[in-house]
Amino acid sequence: MSIRIITDSGCDISQKEAKEKGIVVLPLTTIINQKEYRDGIDIQADEFYEQLISTDIMPTTSQVTIGAFLDAFEQYKDDEILCMTISSQLSGCFQSASVAAQDYEKVRIVDTMNVSLGSRNLIELALSYIEKGMDIDSIVEQLEMDKTKCKVYAYFDTLEFLKRGGRISSAVAAAGSILNIKPVLTLKEGVIEMSGKARGLKKAGSCMAKCVMEDGMDFSKPYHLAYSGCSKEGVLSFLDNNKELNLDSGKIVQIGPTIGTHAGPGAVAISYFVK
């Protein structure tokens, strides 16, 4: 019996990649000017960012519904299903999947306690475990250990979208704008926390690089870099300014609408595992 991975679009795996990898990515919904778009289906990242910077109205997102998970579980009911969602602390996708799975004995739900690149890295690990022939319960057990070693860091060109989304206060955003302060954020137990801050993007990149160096990456496992917006110039500058990290072989991906709603354009992120 084959194992099928089902996830949500908060992992920033495109529909094209999902098809190539043989996984199912259920889209969250992004709402812009009262119009709903299915992430990665009705709207692509470049179009989303163009709309984001041209409107003063904060887009919102809604989780994958119980019904959407039910439809997916029913479609692949002949497989064992490994459903991996973004952090339950940041989205209701895990809860929706858990409710939908109640009548499906062959479904296992994993809360990645991550978003974007972190969830993506765990999914890639899960794929490697499937290829090795591990059974689904052993994979779940291993992923529960792996996710405690998964790190995510990001810094942001603007605080405006974090403010709009209620992630930081208006006072902090205003001070950051005046002083050119760029926050470096991380995830701890599925919750966004401040890891550091610096004046200017180059120093913010150095701050993030210091975190990476102190952690000690496990290069035997997946790692990715990401950017938000329509240009990858920011992440390329980060790599150029921090060559000591030896990250040239890491894949660079574009952050999609779900996470981009809060990040805004110009963010740079990295995710990896520690030893």
UniProtKB/TrEMBL annotation:
<dbReference type="InterPro" id="IPR043168">
    <property type="entry name" value="DegV_C"/>
</dbReference>
<dbReference type="InterPro" id="IPR003797">
    <property type="entry name" value="DegV"/>
</dbReference>
<protein>
    <submittedName>
        <fullName>DegV family protein</fullName>
    </submittedName>
</protein>
<dbReference type="GO" id="GO:0008289">
    <property type="term" value="F:lipid binding"/>
</dbReference>
<dbReference type="Pfam" id="PF02645">
    <property type="entry name" value="DegV"/>
</dbReference>
<keyword id="KW-0446">Lipid-binding</keyword>
<dbReference type="InterPro" id="IPR050270">
    <property type="entry name" value="DegV_domain_contain"/>
</dbReference>
